[in-house]
Amino acid sequence: MNSPRLNLPYIAQSQAQKEITHNDALNLLDITTQTSVIAIDFTPPGSPANGALYIIGGDTATGAWEGQETMLAGYYDGWIFVTPQQGWRAFNQADGTFYIFDGSDWVADAPGAWQVPSLNLDWEGLGGDWQNPRYRIDQSGLVTIEGAMQNLTASNDGVIFTLPSGFRPDKDLIFCGYSAGGLSRWNIHADGDVEVAASNMFFTSLSGIQFYAAS
Questions:
Q1: Which domain holds residue 199?
Q2: Is pTM, for the whole model, over 0.70?
Q3: Sheet holding 72-75, edge to edge
Q4: Which residues touch 84 (CB under 8 Å, ≥6 apart)?
Q5: What is the number of structural domains in the chain?
Q6: pLDDT digits (tens, 9 = 90+) for 128-185
Q7: Phi and psi for 101 in degrees, rounded to 5?
Q8: Do residues 97 and 174 both lie within one domain?
Q9: Which of 67, 75, 119, 207 has the fewest CB atoms within 10 Å, i.e. is most exposed?
Q10: 143 to each of 66, 114, 125, 139, 194, how far by Cα in Å?
């Protein structure tokens, strides 16, 4: 009989050689706790060290890993394979990135690519060495907006750009910003509109805006 979540073997009453079951459970814990793998690969190493841990990639695995795609593979005097559960997280030493198991494959737990919006009301990126306005979303749904803008005509308050579906909050939100004239106000609306008030034409910053997108 095994535990319902991590499939750790239980020691049965009056069981002989209890140390074998106990050590098997410890090896499984060693794999699934604070998981840090050497690499994501589909070919087992020739001479793995005891305790070596890998994620078997989604490609066709070979050798001792054949048929074990997406499994965690730990070497403990032989290969042990652990089926990951949705939401498990592991650090990949090969590329310095955390990965999350989404239920079917391991995906990098990294923010998505930066998106550059088209600005309204004659606003444009501040330019030079300053970051122009941009936004992105990470695997957890956290949206980040950053950058600074200027207006060569006037300090035009209003909707600067609109976030696409999937990047919008559940409810309207208010954030405090900074501009050449002092504090400004940013309203992030549930319909995606990104609106500024008390802006300054010389520069107005969007940095520091973060929120979770509506589920």
A1: 123-212
A2: no
A3: 40-41, 53-56, 72-75, 79-82
A4: 70, 71, 72, 101, 106
A5: 2
A6: 999 999 999 988 899 999 999 999 999 999 999 999 999 999 999 999 999 999 999 9
A7: -85, 120
A8: no
A9: 67
A10: 39, 10, 20, 10, 13
